[in-house]
Amino acid sequence: MLVEGKNICYSYAFGGFSFALRDVDLNIARGEFVAILGCNGSGKSTLVKHLNALLQLQQGELKVAQIDVRNEKEVWLLRRRCGMVFQNPDHQFVAPVVEEDIAFGLENYEVPRNEISGRVRSALARVEMSGYEKRAPNTLSGGQKQRVALAGVLALDPEIIIFDEATAMLDPDGRQEVIKIMEKLHRAGKTIIAITHYVEEAVAADKIILMHQGRVLACGSPQTVLTNLDLMKEAELIPPFPVRLYYDLQQAGIYLNRCPLTEEELVEEICQFKSKI
Fold first, then answer.
1. Cα separations in angstroms, 127 against 52, 173, 184
2. pTM of the predicted protein model
3. FRET partner for 160 with CA separation of 20 to 30 A, picked from 33, 74, 136, 249?
4. Of 3.40.50.300, 1.10.760.10, 3.40.50.1100, 3.40.50.970, which CATH number belongs to 3-239?
């Protein structure tokens, strides 16, 4: 496993009277696309901030890419292997020009100067932002800013990329831009961890970790987790529209072959049903 965690507990309160995480186990394989899904305050962001030691492990065990997150001597290497894209891209920009901002991280990790410009161009190309090298970040749209922030992470070539509510501040078009890049990186072999409260964004994942009040309620495929109405209700989340319609149709005496997760699957199931009438 690329990420292995056991009995992780964390409290923001002195003395540990109120836990943000309670006995969380976490296992993520290399190359997996994992969605950590839950409503606000469920502990999603608190959990992933342990992966690159932004939060110090208080209780339990956690290894990322064979690195014990409690090993302070390995924090620099850990953060290079585990990159994070935050909710607000403006918080990640440190330079007035796009290419300088991406180069900043490379310089900090002492990448040879003759390699930096090539890695900046390559990272921008991967997020479909070639030609924006000389632009100021504050002139970009929300989706473009988030892609530039991602390029800064990609330039360091991490094994794991965490998207911590990276689409939460974007309009629908901006969200789709980031989701497309996320799926593209997954197909290229990157390990993707997406933190979200949007159930629709979890549909494309290999595995969903469903959280509520600091605990893991369930861990399984999108088909297993998102179609379980009782589980979704306990997590205080609304299932995807195709799932809700599937069960509404059952109430009306119409039974589809399987419960669809996407609108495309819903259309396919309805067409198959009509062909049997």
1. 23, 15, 9
2. 0.91
3. 136
4. 3.40.50.300
